[in-house]
Amino acid sequence: MSPDSAAPPLVRVAGLVKWFGAVKVLDGVSFSLERGQMIAVLGRSGAGKSTLLRCINGLEPIQAGEIEICGHRVAPLDLIGLPRRQNRRVLRQDVGMVFQSYNLFPHLTVERNITLALTLVQKKPRREAREIAIQVLTQVGLVDRLDAYPEQLSGGQQQRVAIARSLALSPQVMLLDEVTSALDPELTAEVLKVMEDLAERGMTMIIVTHEMGFARRLADVVLFMHRGKVWESGPTEEIFADPRTSELRQFIASVL
Amino acid sequence: MVQFNSVHVLYLFEAAKWTIALSLIAFTGGAVLGVPLALARVSGFKMLRLAAAGYIQVIQGTPLLIVLFLSYFGLSIAGYRLDPLVAAGLSLTLYSGAFLGEIWRGCIEAVPRTQGEAADCLGLSRLQQYIYVILPQAMRIATPLTVGFMVQVVKSTSLASIIGFVELSRAGQIINNSTFQPFLVFALVGAIYFVICYPLSVASRRLERRFHVAR
Predict the structure, then answer these.
(1) B112 vs chain A: nearest CA distance in angstroms?
(2) I want to staple A3 with a disulfide (CB 3.0 to 4.6 A). Which of A34, A60, B56, B134 is the partner?
């Protein structure tokens, strides 16, 4: 899928401000993302990367700014008052999220982990939900583990199930928050492979990652965050080839 | 003086049934009260949280004996003369409800917050998050603790003897008054309590082990 410049961006974040107590973790973050693009959010820990994803998904209240995602607006007011929950539920239909710690439901089988929201939220019949589970598990290469419990899987497999669980709801945008950071190097590769596959299928993704090689190879846009701000952003090759700020230069030097 | 004989043993067994009955009442009532208390303690509404916390604090800070006196002697002066069984059942319900509420609150909070977040991100409503994700996991944690608490409840029923309810302890006293063989009588009473409680303790420990392995 090629970005269509006439269409409005799928994700638009403008002037996002987020405080944790007296600490300003996000200080006027703005960016936008076209359908089918992958954006890699880079930066040192504490730069506000994960918080940014959590705000986009309505997991954290924001204090100022605007987030528009697939036509749904998340404004600061929504996150305090009554409309909040309803607004978030609509948002959830289009936005999938995958966490660093997988967060699979340990008391449910892989199949049920995936079908739970399909049957409860999308009200699909159990059989159809199972079909979808099989389909997304095939996509991440784990269809033979349908009846396993999360604890019977390796970390990499658990994360692939988590991606499949999110994928099953056919989101328009996926947010991936350091999904390989808890994994051993050899398990990282299998998860990155799944993400690469998603990118090739044209999934719109916002990823927070420390895998520089992966980001450089696959991201369309890079957002380098520093002290709660978008310090530098632009097309991936430009960012890596010609960093303008000393912070980004140092960061690239330290991780490559 | 009457010698301790088989009639007395049968009498104790009969009384032990009341101990078990009272335990079941206390436990069922406590569960019926404890579930809403636990949910109120983790609720998003501050008033509910405070009310539940206040109730739990008051009951946990009051001897069960005083609760018994209040519901038996206190209410009778206020014009509500309760049967000893009702007064004891009521007191034990109030007591175990508070403790179970607090135990179960801890279990709900022991489920990682990220589990609710993950369910939230999948679009589950708050009620669905509780029913399908949080409570099933909390229940697994709660089982050994709850069974362990049942042992406490069984032993606490002996306090009902103070208001004249004839359960196992009271029956022991009555027999001892006529036979005056306290060692024999109360050792037997203690043994019967042990027979009731021991399987619960074993079950609790076994469940705890299984939980740790399954984690």
Answers:
(1) 9
(2) A34
| Direct distance between the N- and C-terminal alpha carbons of chain B, in angstroms, rounded to an integer | 59
CA angle B143, B144, B147 (to 5 degrees): 85
Q: Is B119 at the interface with chain A, CB within 8 A?
A: yes
Q: How confident is the model over A88-124, as pLDDT tens digits?
A: 777 888 999 999 999 999 999 999 999 999 999 999 9
CB B137 within 8 A of CB B115: yes
- By CB neighbour count within 10 A (0-12 exposed, 13-18 middle, 19+ buried), where does A100 fall? middle
Q: State the best of A57, A90, A116 to mutate against chain B, taking most chain B CBs within 10 Å.
A: A116
Cα A152 versus chain centre, distance: 25
Which band of pLDDT confidence, cut at 50, 70 and 90, is reported for residue A81?
very low
- The contacts of residue B30 (CB under 8 Å, 6+ apart) are B92, B93, B95, B96, B97, B99, B100, B153
Q: Do A116 and B140 touch (CB under 8 A)?
A: no
Q: Can you tell me which residue has the tokens 């299928």?
A: A201
Task: Evaluate whether B52 touches B91 at the Cβ level (below 8 Å).
Answer: no
- Considering only CB atoms, which chain A residues are within 8 Å of B121? 57, 59, 92, 95-97, 166
Partner residue opposite A93 with nearest CB, options B115, B123, B136: B123
Nearest CA to CA, how far is A153 from chain B (Å)?
13
Give, in degrees to the nearest 5, the angle at Cα A14 between A10 and A15: 160
- Architecture category of domain B6-214 in CATH: Orthogonal Bundle (1.10)
For residue B48, give both structure tokens: 């509910």
- The pTM of this model reads 0.85
Show me where the domains of chain B are located. Answer: 6-214
